[in-house]
Automatic annotation (TrEMBL):
Family annotation (InterPro entries): CheY-like_superfamily, Sig_transdc_resp-reg_C-effctor, Sig_transdc_resp-reg_receiver, Tscrpt_reg_LuxR_C, WH-like_DNA-bd_sf
Pfam family, one: GerE
The UniProt record lists the keyword DNA-binding: yes
Organism: Roseateles depolymerans
Alphabetized GO MF terms: DNA binding
Protein name (Swiss-Prot/TrEMBL): Chemotaxis protein CheY
GO biological process: phosphorelay signal transduction system; regulation of DNA-templated transcription
Annotated signal sequence range: none
Transmembrane segments: none
Keywords: DNA-binding, Transcription, Transcription regulation
Length: 213
């Protein structure tokens, strides 16, 4: 699976609908395509569900018994759950669509919808989630590498990424330029940065260098 696409065979599709026939139909569809499928009947069940550590999306009916799909989505947002949501409804209207989209829903499909429409929506949602997970893994790698730096190397990295010259860093830290160069080389090696530009991007990700606008 590349960074720009996602495979149903490597993902989990969570279907939340209080209609048993709909749950069974969607489960059969996505299982036939190789996806792992979880079916839930209410917003409460979704709130209790623990998402697996893999690419996921949620197909969520707007009108559920008890709390609505919109309520469930709002709780996901409040909890910082970034898994993409696709709303389906037989009673869709413009205000409901606007509310869902403002809250971050990926798609809003009115029943009856074509099977291909849903497949396209799910593929787009899974691709977005896969890309987000790839970014998270990359950011975690940067953080782990940064933690391997010594305190002095972290000081040098911050100043180098902020555009300081070796002489300026040496004067500020009270060390020789040669020592600065040694620390700088160590920083580049440990951070696996092939260029100063890459190091600056890493520093921005870590929050130790302001993002240039």
């Amino acid at each position: 699976m590349g960074p720009a696409t996602a495979s149903l065979e490597d993902s989990t599709v969570v279907v939340v609908d209080d209609d048993d026939q709909v749950r069974q139909a969607l489960s059969s569809l996505f299982r036939s395509l190789g996806s792992d499928v979880v079916t839930l009947a209410s917003a409460a069940e979704l709130q209790q569900y623990v998402f697996p550590d893999r690419t996921c999306c949620v197909i969520l009916d707007v009108r559920l018994r008890g709390a609505s799909g919109l309520d469930a989505q709002a709780l996901m947002v409040a909890r910082g759950n970034p898994v993409p949501v696709i709303f389906i409804t037989g009673h869709g209207d413009i205000p409901m669509t606007v509310t869902a989209m403002k809250a971050g829903a990926e798609h809003f499909l009115a029943k009856p919808f074509r099977e291909q429409e849903l497949l396209d929506a799910v593929h787009a949602a899974l691709t977005k989630d896969a890309a987000r997970r790839a970014r998270d893994r990359q950011a975690e790698g940067v953080r782990v590498r940064y933690e391997s730096l010594t305190p002095r190397e972290r000081e040098v990295m911050a100043k180098v990424s902020a555009g300081w010259l070796n002489k300026q860093i040496a004067d500020q830290l009270g060390i020789s330029e040669i020592t600065v160069k040694i620390h700088r080389a160590q920083v580049m090696r440990k951070m696996e940065a092939d260029s100063l530009a890459m190091l600056v991007v890493q520093a921005q990700q870590l929050g130790i260098c302001p993002i240039q606008i």
